[in-house]
Amino acid sequence: MVEAARATVVVRDATAEDLPAVAAIYTHYVLRTTMTFNTQVRTPREWVQRFEDDVVGGPYHLKVAERDGAVAGYVESLRFRPKPAYDRSVELSVYVAPDATGGGLGSALYGAMLTTLEADDRFHRAYAIIALPNDTSVVFHERWGFVHRGTLSEAGHKFGRYLDVAYYERAL
Which domain holds residue 122? Predict the structure, then answer.
């Protein structure tokens, strides 16, 4: 257990029962921010299929942080790129409920995920892809040992504007 913002936080492997809460958190970021380049909300069926294929039946991980018994954030490891030569690399993605930011949940989630990945000899590198500007995410990733490896200018387009994308890398 980790203490964050005077509330008990438990980070654990997600179950299928957690998917509605995970989906609700992610939906906020899809509809209201440029932190994800998804522009359409995933359906419940898409969440279940992804979980079954990638986590239950695959090598990837989904962890949730519970604060006071409710899911308040999640972190996932994902396929970095679709070609087989990339299979020893993972992309990480972390999201915290809008009303739970700033309380250490992201750090609790990242710490747990990195511990899991470091013990998993299937993976060699972790990548974070950050839509810019996002100083908070840049500082967060650098604190976890991620190193900036490059920026693609105007690689994404959301909410009527072009966005740069920074690539960060960390050895596992």
Answer: 2-128
**CA nearest neighbour of 15 among 47, 45, 43:** 47
CA-wise closest residue to 172 among 143, 138, 142, 146: 146
CB 78 within 8 A of CB 91: yes
- The answer to whether residues 163 and 157 touch, using CB atoms and an 8 Å cutoff, is yes
Provide the greatest CA pair distance for the chain: 44
The CATH number assigned to the domain holding 33 equals: 3.40.630.30
Instruction: Give 113-146 pLDDT, tens digit per residue.
Output: 999 999 999 999 999 999 999 999 999 999 999 9
pTM of the complete model beyond 0.90? yes
Q: Round to whole Å and give the CA distance between 128 and 108.
A: 17
Paired with 7 in beta bridges are 4
Domain total in the chain: 1
d(CA 103, CA 7): 9
